[in-house]
UniProtKB/TrEMBL annotation:
Enzyme Commission identifier(s): 2.7.7.65
Record lineage: Bacteria, Pseudomonadati, Pseudomonadota, Betaproteobacteria, Nitrosomonadales
Originating organism: Nitrosomonas aestuarii
UniProt keyword Aminoacyl-tRNA synthetase, yes or no: no
GGDEF domain location: 413-546
Keywords annotated in UniProt: Membrane, Transmembrane, Transmembrane helix
Protein name stated in the entry: diguanylate cyclase
A GO BP entry: signal transduction
């Protein structure tokens, strides 16, 4: 992650995402806990109301039953069975059965009315197939006294094909002796509308379970007997009454439920609410939150990209421009948008100013360099040139001769040296003056330059003496050049006085030989040749021929 753009992008995303997620998750966690507490409270209310409905239903039935137990016919019938003679009217089981049937017809909510004697034997019943359930018998056994009404646990009745609950009420004689029990059997489905009414607000579902863990009835779902919950779930709910748990219910939906022990009816109440309904608002809020966070991140990402772009693009231009400067191209400037007044804009402005200054400095430096170069060239030229004649000076001549000697040693091809002196120049000077003398010297130099090839060299040796180096030339060939020079220099046009001056030249000619180990040695021999020319009467060329041995050796090569 090297680029500034990606750093800005990541920072913007993280600075949006982290606080959003932390606050969001914290808020959801708090809300979830609130919802959990709230749903637990509502489930407890539901279960408690259901329990009260059950109690009310049982108590109402007990109340109804108690009025029947005081019926004279029932007391007389059991007194007869018990052989009590104290003024009781003898009532046979058939008569009591008839009576019970007539009562049964009036009380439709009762499935069966059965009268049992003190020994728990059925005396009479409204039903042909009267039942005395095992649970009821057990209750009688557990109870030391039968003075209190007993409510049997609900159970499936094959006879009535429904879940039934029996309430046993003691039948007491006028002497306050217990004569037997009136057993009233009810359909548990009767309680369903009552329970349903208790689940309207808060809304929910109520199940009644027997001690075996089978559902008996439900307020909104049809359950067939026996129907069981997952045993672990049921056990957890039983072991933790009043504590909520999320589990899969008969409706195949996730629910939140809790268990509650009913007081008068021996059943377990399970109140439950649909998990989806409970968390609907929470889920909606969560989805909305994620949509808002996504939109925020999207907007922040766009802004981050724009910001990164607005910073990186000018920077990239600066980098490119700096790269051009590094390559030596100073003809560059960066376009700065008028609206860009930020640091990057200022940096670009400063960059342009800096480049402009560099350009000016470079122009000055280039001009100074050019001048210096020209001056150096002039100096170099002056250092090797004779000021009066424009020919090479003595220093340069020494250098040229050294080079030629080296070359000669390598390729054995000799070069010729012409040492030239103006005859009686002193007389000319004295007669015409030094200025004219200078002009004569310069004109003589011009003649020399015109008489030689481009590969040859002409130098002023000093005073009125000149030396010419003819490369790869023998004395024989050099004589021709010397004669040409002599003939061309005979008439010098003097511009100052506009006259033709007749001068003569004496020339000494030699060619390089192996014995010439230095420029001095070579010049010395040329000077000797010149001396000979002067001595022979001037206005002539004198040649010192090379050693015959040496010439022979050259020819043999
Ligand atoms: N005008 C002028 N004269 C110079 C310059 N340099 C040397 N001379 C003169 O040149 C003369 C050279 O004379 P010499 O070569 O000795 O003698 P000469 O008169 O040429 O006689 P020979 O060489 O024997 O023929 C001297 O009088 C110098 O003063 C110069 O640059 N300008």
């Amino acid at each position: 992650m090297k680029s500034i753009k990606s750093k800005i992008f990541v920072f913007a995303l993280l600075s949006t995402l982290i606080p959003s997620l932390v606050l969001g998750l914290l808020s959801f966690h708090l809300n979830e806990n609130l919802i959990k507490d709230n749903v637990k409270r509502e489930l407890r209310i539901l279960a408690s109301r259901a329990s009260h409905e059950l109690d009310a239903w049982v108590n109402q039935n007990i109340h109804e039953g108690k009025s029947l137990t005081s019926a004279k016919i029932i007391i007389d019938a059991l007194s007869t069975a018990a052989n009590l003679q104290n003024g009781y009217i003898k009532v046979s089981p058939e008569i009591l059965t008839h009576y019970l049937s007539s009562v049964h017809k009036k009380l439709e909510t009762i499935l069966e009315l059965t009268v049992v004697d003190i020994n728990k034997n059925v005396f009479a019943s409204s039903s042909d197939q009267h039942i005395l359930t095992e649970p009821l018998k057990n209750l009688w056994l557990d109870s030391n006294t039968s003075h209190q009404p007993l409510v049997s646990p609900p159970l499936w009745s094959e006879q009535f094909e429904t879940i039934v609950v029996s309430i046993a009420l003691p039948i007491v004689s006028y002497d306050d002796y217990i004569l037997g029990q009136l057993v009233l059997t009810y359909d548990l489905q009767n309680i369903k509308p009552l329970l349903k009414g208790s689940t309207k607000s808060p809304r929910g579902e109520i199940y009644l379970f027997d001690s075996n863990g089978s559902a008996l009835i439900a307020t909104h779902t049809d359950v067939s007997y026996p129907s069981f919950f997952d045993s672990r779930t049921f056990q957890y709910l039983l072991n933790n009454p009043g504590e909520s748990l999320t589990f899969r219910s008969f409706s195949q939906k996730n629910v939140i439920g809790l268990a509650y022990k009913a007081e008068t009816l021996p059943v377990t109440i399970i109140a439950e609410k649909n998990h989806k309904d409970v968390y609907a608002a929470w889920t909606k809020q969560r989805n909305l939150y994620f949509i808002l966070v996504s939109v925020s991140i999207f907007l922040v990402a766009i802004i981050a990209i724009y910001l990164g772009h607005s910073i990186v693009t000018p920077l990239q231009r600066l980098i490119n421009a700096t790269g051009q400067i590094v390559k030596g191209n100073l003809d560059i400037s960066i376009t700065v948008a008028t609206r860009q007044k930020d640091e990057v804009g200022k940096l670009a402005e400063m960059f342009n100013l800096m480049t402009e200054k560099l350009r000016r400095s470079q122009t000055k430096i280039l001009a100074a360099n050019k001048t210096m170069l020209q001056k150096n060239q002039q100096l170099e030229k002056l250092s090797i040139t004779d000021g009066l004649t424009g020919l090479y000076n003595r220093n340069k001549l020494n250098q040229i001769i050294s080079d030629q000697l080296l070359r000669f040693q390598r390729n054995k091809r000799p070069f010729a040296v012409l040492m030239i002196d103006v005859d009686y120049f002193k007389v000319l000077n004295d007669k015409l003056g030094h200025v004219i003398g200078d002009e004569i010297l310069a004109a003589t130099a011009g003649t020399l330059t015109q008489s030689i090839r481009s590969i040859d060299f002409a130098a002023r040796y000093g005073g009125d003496e000149f030396i010419i180096i003819l490369t790869e030339t023998t004395v024989k060939e050099a004589v021709i050049t010397a004669e040409r020079i002599r003939s061309q220099a005979s008439e010098i046009h003097c511009k100052t006085i506009d006259k033709i001056i007749n001068i003569t030249l004496s020339i000494g000619i030699i060619q390089s030989e192996p014995k010439d180990i230095s420029p001095t040695a070579l010049i010395s021999r040329a000077d000797q040749a010149l001396y000979e020319a002067k001595h022979a009467g001037r206005n002539q060329a004198y040649t010192i021929s090379p050693d015959t041995e040496y010439v022979a050796s050259l020819n043999s090569d």
